[in-house]
Fold each of these.
Amino acid sequence: MGFKWSLNPYMGCVHRCTFCYVRAFEKRSDRPSDDRYGTSIRVKTNVADVLRRELARPTWQHEQVTVGAATDPYQPVEGKFKLTRACLEVFRDVANPFGIITRGPMIVRDIDVLVEASRRADVSVTFSIPTLDDEVWKRTEPSTAHPRQRLKAVTALVDAGVKASVGMAPILPGISDRPEQLREVVRAAREAGATGIWANLLFLRPGTREHFLEHLAEDWPEQLPLYERLYASRRAYLGAEERNPLRDQVGALAREYGIRDRRKLKLAPPAEPEQLSLGF
Ligand code: SF4
């Protein structure tokens, strides 16, 4: 993954997306990656205390931390435990930059902390919204909030001055990659005020692969030959010849709709003081 530090207050995810890449991590750790994944959640009850200690180390360089890379940090149990919120408070208190990845509109509960943190350090939120196609959403992200709820959360954050973008991932070949499906998401992201947008194709590592293909065989059996060809020889990632056309399409749509940081209030940390060079 393209970051050095990540933080997950929970492990396991009740959203149980059929394409969830975390199933691959679970398999590697000898935990169930099939239909049992997401039926129980591991709760790191002391995560905020440990985080505060770790960030107080003199050697800590205040590097960016990604919250929610291996589970959604806004699980329903977050309503009770408030561990994600407690971690955001720690980041705020020590002015540490962070980014959040989520499908959970519950994040709007924490706008107050996100606003304060954004005034002290670089903060960004990415909402995973691969599709607005109801059929695809229901079949592949069965326990998540409706993607339009996520878009409302984007607007709430952006209106408060917090950077919030949309990640269209994963796009499923033959299922959610039709031009009109992509356009619908980009247009809605623009209307919601998203500060950026990107897209990525499905990848299938062992653990995710078996589960996803099982569901594909039930939901879209006619697509199986395409997936067997694309992900042949247990290939996990698609190549540039499949990736680039998708990225080009979404890039062109983003330009057409003018997606960029249009926040009226752009919360940001104070500029670094300039170093005076003393010439001797
Ligand atoms: S919300 Fe994210 S972590 Fe949770 S099941 Fe879906 S893809 Fe996996």
Amino acid sequence: MKVRESGMPDEALWSSFFDPERILRAFSIDKNTKDVVEFGCGYGTFTLVTALLISGIVFAIDIEPAMIATVREKCDREGISNVLAEELDFVAKGTGLPGDFADAAFLFNILHHEQPVSLMTEALRVLRPEGRLMVIHWNHNPDTPRGPALEIRPRPDQCIEWGRVAGFVFSPDDLLDLKPYHYGLIFRKPQENRS
Ligand SMILES: C[S@@+](CC[C@H](N)C(=O)[O-])C[C@H]1O[C@@H](n2cnc3c(N)ncnc32)[C@H](O)[C@@H]1O
């Protein structure tokens, strides 16, 4: 089942809302990061830059065949071989990936899901102990040029509470202002998974 209001404008407009490298560096995504799981990769706005920054593989998942085709084509064109893009409904089926292996998981612009805790629980499962979940979402502000309806657009404190319920640890220093339109959150999987 597709996450509500997760449709995208055309790629050029969507890309204009982000500086992916700046955001990924703010999340300390670098060569010390091995494997990454990206939930809902869309056009690959963050996927290819991540692949260039890390030392492992980006497991990029999307329900839309056209998005997966786009990401694969862009990787082929740019000679990027450490992206595995797969068409999958992670709401219905989970990621299908093993547990406890990834250094990082991304839930970017998708946590307006009907059951956000279930997405975060799947992220927790795939992460290794002390692995990190990064969240990006649109500021809860009617002036943003896009983003889900404000009634379903999560505020940072809601995401933090969902993360806590899913089993993550959150430090107040890990709330980032990703100007101009977004905020970012970094959650950590505890050494000993409580679930
Ligand atoms: C708003 S877009 C965000 C794309 C990307 N994360 C970004 O920030 O550029 C959400 C993406 O999630 C995908 N998606 C929605 N529901 C999904 C599901 N159940 N399983 C896999 N992908 C899903 C959509 O097809 C879309 O590409």
